[in-house]
Amino acid sequence: MITFPILPGIEINLFLLVFIGFTVGIVGAFIGVGGGYMITPALMVLGFPANFAVGVGIAHITAKSFIATVRHKQLGNVDAKLGVLMIAGTMAGVEIGVRLLNWVRDHGVADKAVLTASIIVMLIIGGYIVWESTKSKTKLDEMVQRREKLPRDMQLSSIPKRLQGIEIPPMIHFPKSRLTISLWVVLSVGFFTGILAGFMGVGGGFVRVPSLVYLIGMPSIIAVGTDLFEIIISGGYSIIRHTMSGNVIIYAAVLMVFGASVGAQIGAIGTRYVRGVSVRYVLGYSVFLASLGSMFKLAHILIGENISWLQKGAQMIIFGSMVVLVAMIVALIGIAVIHRKGGQIPVWAKSLVLEKD
User: What is the number of structural domains in the chain?
Assistant: First the structure.
């Protein structure tokens, strides 16, 4: 257990800080998110006040995203052109988000506001991702039965075609992602996710990755790398703003980055072995599980009493979900390796993993 001078009387488990960094490093690099929607509730459960949980989380997210982006760049998964163009919208959104967080903090309702917003957004997005991924996997399973060649990625949303058809100048072509779309659509996505990044202490990835896939029409694997690239810039700006607001405990963030430096390598390499639908499945379930942990923590705050089973329930769900997600990713990688070596794998898994090139 360790203590921080800025948090007198609060003891923090050193092992759990490193554990959070390691597991979120794996999951975040695999699904293309900073992992703030997992980190912020986890830090609050450990005893960090909401504003410090947000500040420490965004510092960890930025450093971890840099590590993961380097690996994804080597794998060819980053559309730097689109990521750079999103920055302007994201920065404007982050500024609004930080101001909102400071406002609710000054009014003494930061914990309730951050958790409530997190739960609502996560339930909506997680539900849609799981629903769409199930439909796409069913389509891929049918192709397996017909012995047809499977695409690397498939998603059944018709929205990208409609948004790409909005021809408001300037229209930008992105060769890496094989799409052409209005700059204003890209900026709008960045702006909205930037607000969440500043207010909820997230990189915005759990909103931005599905937005890149379901709204803009980017392939899932490239959306993963591109989002992590964009988080480096937006996260860096968020660190500056939160440091100015006194919300960052650097030593805590460094401990988490130590674990993330290993986990991010595993998660990024894992994307070489799976189809896009697998990434979206893990993303959807990670968002759902994170929302459950946030619900327990919010209930504990609203009741206003020290009810041990609520606190323990939040801890079990938050940290247990991290283990479950890592297990899912490792299992997918293991199945893919067996498949590539010519071994037998379950029929249901053939639509989730890639065969040997």
Answer: 1
Domain-located, residue 82? yes
Query: Which is it for the CA torsion 117, 121, 127, 133, positive or negative?
Result: negative
pLDDT along the chain (357 residues), means of 10: 66 82 89 77 80 83 86 89 85 83 80 81 87 90 88 75 85 89 88 78 71 85 87 78 81 85 89 90 86 76 69 76 91 92 88 80
Q: Is residue 354 part of a domain?
A: no
DSSP letters spanning 106-130:
HTT-HHHHHHHHHHHHHHHHHHHHH
CA–CA distance from 203 to each of 32, 142, 243 (Å)? 10, 36, 16
Boundaries of domain holding 283: 2-349
3-state SS class at 175: coil
Q: Is residue 355 part of a domain?
A: no
pTM attached to this predicted model: 0.79
Rounded CA separation 198/232 (Å)? 14
How far apart CA 22 and CA 25 sit, in angstroms, is: 5
